[in-house]
Amino acid sequence: MKLIISSVSGEPIYEQIKNQIRSAVMSGELEAGEALPSLRKLAKELRVSVLTVTRAYNELADEGVVQNLQGKGTFVMDKGNELMRRQLETQVRENLAEAIRAAKAADIALSELGRMLEDEYRKQ
């Protein structure tokens, strides 16, 4: 996993770290049980404060994406974890809402949208 931090994006650095790790977990790039880099190692690689990385890791732990184990490190939680499942469901709903807005703008009927969704679901 390669994190890219932008100092000009306007988004806080800890949010950039958090969002990229969350995306890597949700996409399967980071698997359940996989260890994240240590706080100091990641802070050094990104050239940011250890406190910045700590905040990102702690917020990810609060969301159920990772688990902090004292003295061992930070590990990716299983996608079956209830908090992670709810977050994935929220992401799906947001993406569906965006697709519905686009379909309405293109005057696509609900039945046709349903067929499109089913086709895409089967392709994956």
Description:
The chain has two domains: 13-76, Arc Repressor Mutant, subunit A (Orthogonal Bundle); 82-123. Helices cover 60% and strands 6% of the residues. It is built from five helices and two strands; from the N terminus they run H-H-H-E-E-H-H. Strand 1 (66-69) and strand 2 form a beta hairpin. Helix 2 (39-46) packs across helix 3. 16% of the residues are buried. The model has no long low-confidence stretch (mean pLDDT 92).
Globular, elongated, flat, extended or rod-shaped: what is the shape? elongated
Integer count of domains: 2
Q: Number of helical runs?
A: 5
Category by helix and strand content = mainly alpha
SSE order, as H and E? HHHEEHH
Output mean pLDDT. 92
Arrangement of strands in the largest sheet: 1-2
Question: Considering DSSP H and I runs of 4 or more, what fraction of the residues is helical?
Answer: 55-70%
CATH architecture of the largest domain: Orthogonal Bundle
Assembly level: single chain
> So what's the CATH class of the largest domain?
Mainly Alpha
Radius of gyration: 18 Å
Query: Which parts are unreliable, with pLDDT below 50 for 5 consecutive residues or more?
Result: none
What is the H level of CATH, i.e. the homologous superfamily of the largest domain? Answer: Winged helix-like DNA-binding domain superfamily/Winged helix DNA-binding domain
